[in-house]
Design a protein that fits this description.
Number of domains: 4
Helix content: over 70%
Order of helices and strands: HHHHHHEEEE
Distance between the termini: 129 Å
Radius of gyration: 61 Å
Oligomer: single chain
Strand content: 5-15%
Structural class: alpha+beta
Shape: flat
Largest sheet: 4 strands, antiparallel
C-alpha cells in the first residue's frame, strides 16, 4: 500500500498533520489576503477619489462658463435701448408707422393713376374689339343655316330606314302574335315546343298578351 499510495504517513499523528494544515499557515494565508484586500480597496478608493476630483473640476468649469454666459446675456440686455429708455420703442414704432403711411399713400396714388389711365383707354379698346362683330354675326347666321339644312339632309335617310326597321320589328314581334289570341307554354326547362314535354301533374306556365297563367297539367292529348 505504501508503494502505490499518493501519500505515505508512518503514524496516525503524521497522517492527521498531513490532512489538517497548521494554524500558522492558515494565519499567514489570512494575513496575506487581508493585505491584498486592503491594497485593492485603497486602490479603488484612490481611483474613485481621482474621478470625483475630475468631475468636481469639470462641474466648476461648466458652472463658471454658464454663469459667464448669463452675465454676458444680462449685460447685453442691460445695454438695449428699450431698457435704458422706455420711450425708444414707441418712438421707433411711430417712425416706422410714418414711413409705412407715406409708402401706402404713394402706392395708392400710383395705383389710382394707373387704373384711371387703363379705364380711359378701355372704351377705345372696346370699340376696336367689337368692330368686327357684324361680319362675324352674318357669317355665323349663314353657317347656322347651312348646318341646319345639312343636318336635315343627313337625317332624312336614317330616319326613313329607322321607320321601316321599326315597322318590320313590329310586324315580327311575338307580342303582336299574342295580341291576336295566341299564347306561349313554358315548362320547367323553358319554352315548350311539343305536347310531349308535359305529363299529368307537371307544372305549366302560359304567357299571354296581358300576363301569365300558372296551372297543373291534368291530361296530355
Amino acid at each position: 500500500c505504501d508503494m502505490v499510495s499518493d501519500r505515505r504517513a508512518s503514524t496516525p499523528t503524521a497522517a492527521a498533520e498531513s490532512v489538517a494544515p497548521a494554524m500558522t499557515e492558515l494565519a499567514d494565508v489570512l494575513e496575506a489576503r487581508h493585505q491584498r484586500l486592503g491594497a485593492a480597496m485603497a486602490s479603488m478608493i484612490g481611483s474613485a477619489q481621482v474621478d470625483l476630483e475630475m468631475l468636481d473640476q469639470r462641474g466648476r468649469r461648466a458652472w463658471d462658463t454658464y454663469t459667464a454666459r448669463l452675465g454676458d446675456a444680462l449685460d447685453a440686455a442691460a445695454c438695449r435701448p428699450c431698457l435704458n429708455d422706455p420711450t425708444f420703442m414707441v418712438e421707433r414704432r411711430e417712425s416706422e408707422l410714418a414711413l409705412t403711411a407715406d409708402r401706402l399713400s404713394g402706392a395708392i396714388v400710383r395705383s389710382v393713376g394707373t387704373f384711371r389711365s387703363n379705364f380711359e383707354r378701355l372704351p377705345e379698346r372696346l370699340v376696336a374689339s367689337t368692330s368686327g362683330l357684324d361680319g362675324k354675326r352674318h357669317a355665323l347666321t349663314l353657317a347656322s343655316s347651312r348646318l341646319e339644312h345639312q343636318g336635315r339632309t343627313m337625317l332624312n335617310k336614317p330616319a326613313s330606314d329607322l321607320g321601316r326597321t321599326a315597322a318590320s320589328l313590329d310586324a315580327l314581334s311575338p307580342l303582336k302574335v299574342l295580341a291576336r289570341g295566341y299564347s306561349i307554354a313554358y315548362s320547367v326547362d323553358g319554352v315548350a315546343m311539343s305536347a310531349k314535354t308535359f305529363k299529368p301533374g307537371d307544372a305549366i306556365r302560359v304567357r299571354m298578351a296581358d300576363g301569365n297563367v300558372a296551372a297543373t297539367v291534368d291530361t296530355v292529348e
